[in-house]
Specification:
The structure is a homodimer of 487-residue chains. Chain A is an alpha/beta fold. Chain A contains 14 helices and 19 strands. In chain A, the strands form 6 sheets. In chain A, strands 6-14-13-12-11-7-8 form a 7-stranded mixed sheet, sandwiched between helices. A 4-stranded antiparallel sheet of chain A has the order 15-16-19-18, with helices on one face. Chain A has a two-stranded antiparallel sheet with strand order 1-2. In chain A, helix 6 packs across helix 11.
Chain lengths: 487, 487
């Protein structure tokens, strides 16, 4: 191809430079050039192209090359060829109106200096090397069939590893047939509730009780599936499960027994027993959201409620707090009578979770790396929590930290009426954090308290000290110090 | 701990051996032993346990160890402690009725010798080494933020790589803001249609036209979302898109333009233009399922219809045929006005696709490995198709193979009325395959033809020859050969 720019002016009656360069065969280059010219409106709809013989001569190409290119573009719909009327630019090939750029998706903005929002482990701590080593071992050992259509329950290797792990660490009563792997907690809730999925539909129907404080998107998923949510009051001993009997139509309850989210207390033993008792006598179901069960700093974590009665409790967990939400792996441990319904809702076509990651996680757990990583992170988060508590005790003793020493977040109780301004002050200081109000159920009737939910796991290790210092500067003064109370 | 088995008979009035062995501290071992005993019903509800001092003496353990173990089991709900009544096994802790094993999930059984079902690439051909190398590069280069909460559109690295790839190979008009990564085709359909997802719900409402032959689960997903499906007739030039104007309420159409599934022809250029024209004049939408667009053996594949009008076509693709369904990655290229609705349906909490796999695939594409793998597989599948066609021409000339030389499957046309018995005969010979009937829309009105859908990509390379031989033995004889037509 002698020229990389060829002017078609003589042939089509107007200036048109075709850029005949770039990778690929001559035919491919010509097709691309003509297609681009049509796309960009340089060749208007209806324009008659030169006969392939003349274009071939102009461009110094073989006739077949140009004929092939025309045929290809006709097949794609850019050109039309009609006996007697030659080859023309198709009418349908006009350039579209300039595409409107969509608004950026509502992801976490990065315009703040310190991120103290709850929900994510320290991103920098992901064990890249150990994970890759596990991936290499897992992919090397995997039989070919892993690359074919999969079991909708998830890979058996992962379900076996989880069986051992959850029995040992969380006291869950489980066998691999009861586990369904999913892509995280939201996916699990959809499989349990969403009636529009597949022919079977989600197996659960409402209403369902929830804790008066929790993650709003849990309720959103239930309500979107037509399941009404009924808030239970909370006190220092967790959810008041005795309120369940006051709601005769409630079919089940979603709880965070190990570490109430976000207020931070474990469910009292008497209430653990009471909720199982309620489930047995009322044919109810308990959904146990064990979102951070491995992270307890003052003692061995309390085991899962599921262990008390595996036929009445769905146990739900994921690696989103322990490893990273980027892995997109979670699991349900199901009562026997729910397995088929959940698999029907999942469908054989939507395996959802990456099989490669499933195999890697199975190896990561079985090889002890998962325990090792959690131990390391437990120590790190514990130091962060201790530091927060110590600094507050020294410099802001009027602010109390509620809940047990556990998890990836803490709740700072604030003087009444100060939460909204504290959140605003933090935002001005470049700190992203949430107030308690955003976690309150819209129909909750218990008294609201003011507080901040501080995710101490989110900042990078080197940035944590500065983040706590910045936070301190935004906290409301004690009423004794406040200008209003001084003479 | 002097004994690994300790009999509590004297203390609780019946024989009970606690197995005090296994890993962990003495406290952990004792907790596990007591918990197991309660679980298995060896310690009945209400049984009073010996005071911790006496048990400590019996077991040769420190008193604190036993007291801690009791406290832990009380906290977990296995035991109850009441002033004056001592420590007892909790009433709620009775063993559950023996769990019913769920029926195994409906995955592909392996009871057949040859699998000639369509839908999956050759499992053994997954490029493990190259994939791992890409994973290593991708994970090494990734910034820490990839392990935090992600963009619901998918990683920008992957959307950029797909932009280049789809423009170059499939003639798609795309920029990264228009791509939403998902976990496969089923997930994409749910995001587009499922109104129960999130507050926004799926953006599309029906009715929708579909091809009279196709994958039944596509229609199932639409119908489950309340979208009525209307079948279009098919001929050798693809779907009769002119029938769209006869259905005034139809909002869109789902097509397989590059290679009609399963019958195998490409959509005729005039119909490509006509469907775009229909969409423009009727405010309609075209869903382009480009499920095997890279696999054309006789010529360069026809580009995507989407290139004709990106504001009227949703382009859908995945790696399920090109790499493996185990990777669980697919993508949508959306018209500008659908991006927000799809992201609202997806929600920020259900990123779904593994970020690690997304980064790996981005590297795999950008480094040229994806093209290389597809070239290799194209050659292999082409040989398989050629072999099937040749063997049939030689040994069963009354059986014709329809469609163009493309894809991972072929349709064998059978004499009228022979399909059901041919499928049954194949099953007796240990061959898994599907007849055309299973792909027919229940309300299709076009004449049904008999045929077999042969997935020639599924068997392992070494098993393919034998599979074709076995298939030949099950095909119906030509009417000239059949016993009935002989005297």
């Amino acid at each position: 191809m002698p020229e990389s720019w060829v002017n078609l002016a003589e042939r089509i009656g107007s200036d048109l430079y075709l850029e005949l360069s770039g990778p690929g065969s001559r035919r491919a280059v010509l097709i691309r050039a003509l297609r681009d010219a049509v796309r960009e409106g340089l060749l208007a709809p209806g324009t008659r192209l030169p006969p392939y013989r003349s274009l071939a001569a102009d461009l110094g190409l073989a006739r077949n090359t140009v004929a092939d290119a025309y045929a290809e573009l006709v097949a794609e719909g850019w050109l039309t060829a009609r006996q007697g009327s030659g080859t023309r630019v198709a009418e349908g090939a006009a350039p579209p109106t300039r595409a409107r750029r969509p608004k950026p998706a509502p992801v976490r903005p990065t315009a703040h200096r310190y991120d103290l929002r709850q929900g994510a482990p320290e991103a920098a701590s992901f064990p890249r090397t150990a994970w890759l080593a596990a991936a290499r071992r897992a992919l090397g050992a995997a039989p070919d069939e892993v690359f074919g259509p999969g079991d909708p329950r998830g890979r058996i290797e992962l379900r076996r590893a989880l069986t051992d792990y959850l029995t040992r660490v969380r006291g869950v009563r489980v066998d691999p047939d009861r586990i369904v792997v999913c892509s995280g907690f939201a996916h699990a809730l959809r499989l349990l509730f969403d009636g529009s999925r597949g022919a079977g539909g989600g197996p659960l129907r409402g209403p369902f009780a929830v804790e008066s404080y929790g993650l709003r998107f849990h309720c959103d998923i239930l309500e979107a599936s037509g399941v009404r949510t009924v808030p239970l009051d909370l006190d220092e001993q967790g959810a008041l499960v005795e309120q369940l009997v006051e709601e005769p139509r409630v079919r089940g309850v979603l709880l965070t027994p190990a570490h109430q989210f976000p207020t931070g207390g474990p469910l009292h033993p008497a209430r653990r027993a009471a909720v199982i008792d309620w489930a047995r006598t009322h044919d109810g179901l308990v959904l146990e959201d064990d979102y951070d069960g491995e992270f307890r700093y003052d003692r061995v974590p309390v085991g899962a409620v599921q262990g008390l009665d595996p036929e009445r409790v769905v146990y739900l967990g994921s690696v989103s707090k322990s490893l990273s939400p980027a892995v997109r792996l979670g699991w349900m441990v199901l009562p026997a009578n729910l397995v088929e319904g959940v698999l029907a809702a999942k469908g054989t076509r939507e395996a959802s979770a990456s099989v490669l990651d499933q195999l890697t996680l199975a190896d990561f757990i079985a090889s002890g790396q998962y325990d090792r990583h959690i131990r390391r992170m437990r120590q790190r988060y514990r130091h962060r929590r201790d530091r927060l508590v110590t600094v507050l005790a020294e410099q802001a003793p009027h602010i109390t930290v509620t809940g047990v020493a556990a998890g990836l977040h803490a709740v700072l109780r604030l003087p009444p009426g100060t939460e909204a301004s504290a959140v605003k002050a933090a935002s001005w200081q470049g700190i992203a954090l949430d107030g308690l109000a955003g976690f309150r159920h819209p129909r909750a009737s218990m008294p609201a308290g003011d507080g901040l939910v501080i995710g101490y796991s989110t900042p990078a290790e080197h940035a944590y000290g500065a983040a706590v210092e910045a936070l301190l500067r935004t906290l409301p003064p004690s009423t004794a110090d406040s200008p209003a109370s001084r003479p």
